[in-house]
Amino acid sequence: MINKIFALPVVEQLTPVLSRRQLDDLELIVVDHPQAKASFALQGAHLLSWKPAGEEEALWLSNNTPFKTGVALRGGVPICWPWFGPAAQPGLPAHGFARNQAWTLKAHNEDESGVVLTFELQNNEETLKLWPHEFTLLARFKVGKTCEIELEAHGEFETTSALHTYFNVGDISKVKVSGFGDRYIDKVLNAEEGVLTDGVQTFPDRTDRVYLNPEACSVIHDDALARNIDVIHGHHSNVVGWNPGPALSVSMGDMPDDGYKTFVCVETACVTAPQKATDEKPSRLSQTLRVTKR
Fold it and tell me: Which residues participate in catalysis according to the annotation?
């Protein structure tokens, strides 16, 4: 799917390294810079791919995900906002509405180190039916040898949220993640609390854990690709570790049956402690990604 995005015809060349393209219903922004290649969907301000120069692709994107208006994309970095997980009321979308809304590209600039893009979403008729708050939500991305993501929410409200990042790995059975901390809520086992005794999370089967006192940096140790990915968290209360495992992967229409083998989700999140935004002080959530060879 990522190769397909970069092969799409250019609709508009915005700058020497930025172009607009179209895939089915969705408008895309493609970055082709000497330091990194990346792609975004304007729906959801969704980072689809990020490949630093000289590295394998860092993010995972499902080959089965439909590029349809209002349908969440499977992979990349979904922005879960203004709630994480199932909605409090029936009929509302899981993980909020930000990832299904059309955002606007408000600003972009570039230099020799990379490209900075700022996307904006404001409340509209549709969002007010789902969530009765006025807001301005900004998503800033700096893509180069590292990838910096910051979410900034303006208004008067409380939210839960996550940067639900899907990382490309060689083989999930050879992946370990450190830096999660010890205590977690296990969402596979009916929200039981558990303790990670050796500080290293592996993924032998379906895994869905909300870590309660994570370290500032999670490290994905990928033996198959002989690399590590550092995930540096900011303004968070939790980190989520997720992989659907074989049975759930088969049941998901927007994922290949064996899709679970080649990704792991490490999510910077505020789940157990909602964030408060005020007119004086926006709420923030940030994540910085860095690939290091072994």
Answer: 164, 267
